[in-house]
Every structure is written in structure tokens, then in C-alpha cells.
Amino acid sequence: MYTPKGRLDNNTLIKQYSPLVRRLAHQMIAKLPANVELDDLIQVGLIGLTDALSRFDAEQGVQFETFATQRIRGAMLDELRGGDWMSRGTRRQQREIESAVHKVEQKLGRAPREDEIAAEMGLPLAEYQDLLGKVRGTQLVYLEDMSGDDGDNDYLDRHVADDNANPVAQLQDHRMREALVAAIKNLPEREQFVMSMYYEHDMNLKEIAAVLKVTESRVCQLHSQSIARLRVKLRDW
């Protein structure tokens, strides 16, 4: 990893640690809406890796991978903060889905099927499923749900920056947790599986898709629909 002059060989290290950049990008993209491009995150992450190489000081007693991970993730977060990563339009679409779920649920007295939700929204099933894919990354809790403020400067830090972060971890009230558990148990069976694999077992979309024998985009749709159902159930919290 060193040149004949005893310096870090940047080209070799970039090649060696580029899989780390891709892994971090994949971890983030699973928690973000569909308008965020994976390749964009990877490119920004490579810039962060290059920055880490120029700033790394082995005498500080920190492993390079640990240092690089911080710089790469930081570069990605800065890029996300600078863009419209979670637009108001995306949240509006999510709430339209929630409204349709609520109305059909009230009419039928049970969890509605996808085609019933689509019909309530006046959409063909395929178009509704496409919409579910577009609102990927929506969460159980938004800042404005709690404060009425549409801005959330710390949202990325709480939901994306921490590898262990997940929406459930943000629910502080014990009774709300109990309500959430009950709501998850009332989800359609396949959606229960998705939520369990994603949040409890920390599986990514590709892994879940392999288990369910469906496409990654289908898993994304099921996840978005599950979130919509749960948010309807938790409206009073």
C-alpha cells in the first residue's frame, strides 16, 4: 500500500476500498426515496475516500478503514443535505396513499388489498404499485408529525448516518411501541415478513427478494405499503 518513497499508494487504496464505498452507498440507498441515485452516492463516496487518503494520519492510532468510513459517509450525507432528497411531493404522495388505506379500511373493516387501495385512488393497479416504488424511504415518523415544522436538519443523522438506525428506534413512547407491535401483527402476512426481515434481521432488499422469490422493486413496494398501513394505525400517537 506504499510507494517506493514510503507514501500511501492512493490508486491501490482506492481500488482496495471502493467496495467499502459501494457497501455504504447501498446501506444508505435502502433508506432513501427512489429519486436518489445509487451511482451518485458512490461517486460522492469515492470523493470522500480520496479526501480520507489525503487526511489520514496513522500516528493518530485510528485504523484507516474506520477513518475512511467516517469521511465517506460524511461526504454522502453532505451531498444529500444539499439536494431535495425527500421532497414535499414525495411526502404528499405518501399521505395520499395513507388516506386511501384509511378510507378503504373504514369501509371494509379489514386491511385492504392493493387493488382496493388502487381503486380508491382511481389508479390502475400497476400505476399504484409504481407509486409505491417512488415513495421508497418514507418513514413511520416525520419531524412535522411531532413538531409541525417541515424542516428537519437532523433527520439524515438520525435515520441514515447510523448503521443501526431504523424508524422503530425513534419511537420513544412505550405505549406507542406496543401499538406498533399490534399494528404489525395485523399486516398482511407477506408484509409482516418484509418488516421483520428488514428491521429485525437487518436484511437488505436483495436478500428479502431472494427469500420471497420476488424482485427487489416488489419488496420496495411492499415495504412502502406496510409503512402506509402502519402510519394510518398510529395517527393518534
Q: Can you characterise this structure?
A:
By secondary structure, the protein is an all-alpha fold. The protein has 2 domains: 73 residues, Rna Polymerase Sigma Factor, Chain: A (Orthogonal Bundle), CATH 1.10.1740.10; 100 residues, no CATH class. Helices cover 67% and strands 0% of the residues. The chain has 12 helices and no strands. α10 packs across α12. It is elongated, with a radius of gyration of 20 Å. About 8% of the residues have low confidence.
- The shape is elongated
Helix content: 55-70%
Number of strands: 0
Unreliable runs: 141-155, 168-172
Q: What is the count of helical runs?
A: 12
Please report which band the strand proportion falls in: under 5%, 5-15%, 15-25%, 25-35%, 35-45% or over 45%.
under 5%
Going by helix content, strand content and strand pairing, the class is mainly alpha
Radius of gyration: 20 Å
* Count of all domains: 2
- Taking the alpha carbons of the first and last residues, their distance comes to 54 Å
Largest sheet: none
Oligomer designation = single chain
Mean pLDDT across residues: 78
Order of helices and strands: HHHHHHHHHHHH
